[in-house]
Amino acid sequence: MSGETGASQPPYHHEPVMCREVVEVLREVPEGILVDATVGGGGHAAALLESLPQIRLLGLDRDPDALQATAERLTPHSGRVTLRHAAFDALGPVLDGIGETRIAGCLFDLGVSSTQLDRPERGFSYRLDGPLDMRMDPTAGVTAADIVNGADERDLAGILRRNADERHARRIAAAIVAERPFATTAQLSRAVAAAVPAPARRRAHPARRTFQALRIEVNGELEMLERALTGAIERLADRGRCVVLAYHSGEDRIVKSVFRGAAGENPPPRPGLPPAPGPAATVRLLSRRARTPTESERAANHRAGSARLRAVERLTRDV
Fold first, then answer.
1. What is the DSSP string of 161-187?
2. CB contact at 8 A, 49 and 33
């Protein structure tokens, strides 16, 4: 097994979401390299290697701790695994670096893992006190503290609306600007909770969307997603498949748009305008509607509740 991993860390456990469905969709891919573009702790990767003897696996992740855990978990399959410390939009350069042109399949499991949420020092959790960090790769980039303490009120409100559909974005942004600087997650969580109207506090934790929006902004997740999906589809071998697990509406909108565009569909025209012809299709949608977890999985794994699975298959290229 080759890889670039971090130093030894406490056990990294992450329960893979919709693992059975992911394996089912990817079971028919051709022989070759399958890319787990967000390998995490290796849960999906282990299941795929056990179920798909025709594949070798390339795992990417920005989190050195996740790569270390994956390297250990996939030791029984070490001859079929390559790991790289990279963001998922670096898929093309990483493939070029290992001499691979086409891939049999690709998996994107978006968002943050339960292990990252459970480590206060990573700064992802609104329930646990820690530094306002939120970087997937803790060795590079701006932190959530940089954004919270540096952005103006209008920009903060825009981040909350764009990345989390936060209804109370203006109130929260005003409260943040009035009370900053912030150094810890607990400070920010309390300020957000105080800014949100009382009825909204009873439905879910009032800081959940704010923390989601900041994490997405810190890591540039939505900006890189369209680029990464387009690149993955271009790399798919004939009959290769791409699977995405998304956990909120912003991610899912991008996935649906990229997949439907690659399937030759244009967005609906504006009222009064005729439909424009679609681009040439390079994939087929494996289903028009997103698949969702079973009730039993939702009950057993709270992270699965909002998951949406979409998948496409690459059409055969003209010779």
1. HHHH--TTHHHHHHHHHHH----BHHH
2. no
The sign one gets for the Cα dihedral 82, 41, 302, 210 is negative
pTM: 0.87
Phi, psi (rounded to 5 degrees) for 284: -120, 145
Q: Give the chain's domains with CATH numbers.
A: 19-115+221-314 (3.40.50.150), 121-218 (1.10.150.170)
Strand 32-36 with 103-109, pairing: parallel
Amino acid symbol at 281: A
Q: How many whole angstroms from its chain centre is CA 241?
A: 17
**Average pLDDT along the chain:** 90
DSSP 8-state symbol, 74: T
* Residue 316: strand, helix, or coil: coil
CB 223 within 8 A of CB 272: no
Residues of the chain with pLDDT > 70: what percent? 91
Distances in whole angstroms, Cα of residue 284 to Cα of each of 46, 128, 194, 316 = 27, 43, 47, 10
